[in-house]
Amino acid sequence: MSLRAAARLAADGITTRVVDLRWLAPLPCDAILAEAQATGRVLIADETRKTGGVSEGIMAALADGGFPGRLARVTSEDSFVPLGDAASCVLLSEQAIEAAARKLVS
Predict the structure, then answer these.
(1) pLDDT (0 to 100) of residue 40
(2) What are phi and psi of 87, to 5 degrees?
(3) 24-102-73-85 Cα dihedral, nearest 10 degrees
(4) Which of 38, 42, 79, 84 is most buried, judged by most C-beta within 10 A?
């Protein structure tokens, strides 16, 4: 999803860098901080729920590391995940990632 959103952003002249962490435990905090400092802005696209998701740990690592740049996250909703088409009502979407990225750079 993030790569497809990045491609659409690039078409509008917005360059991005996608770092795919998948799930790493423990998080590679030094590498995350280095990537964040290289760009000055971070959007965390977290497919898990807003509460208790990996994005919380990433934000904490950046804060603990003294990251001075802009920081935002976009997540799935805090809810159970319904089946079928209803899942799109609560799960993170490419459109939500793209909209959050545009807001972060504006």
Answers:
(1) 95
(2) -60, -30
(3) -80
(4) 42
Phi/psi for 24 (5° steps) reads -120, 130
pLDDT in tens, 2-38: 999 999 999 999 999 999 887 678 899 999 999 999 9
Look at the chain and report how many structural domains it folds into.
Answer: 1
* Banded model confidence at residue 57, pLDDT cuts 50, 70, 90: very high
CATH of residue 97's domain is: 3.40.50.920
Residue whose pair of structure tokens reads 């805090």 in the numeric block: 78
Give Rg (Cα) of the chain.
Answer: 14
Q: pLDDT confidence of 87, banded at 50, 70, 90? A: confident
Rounded to whole angstroms, how far apart are CA atoms 89 and 85? 8
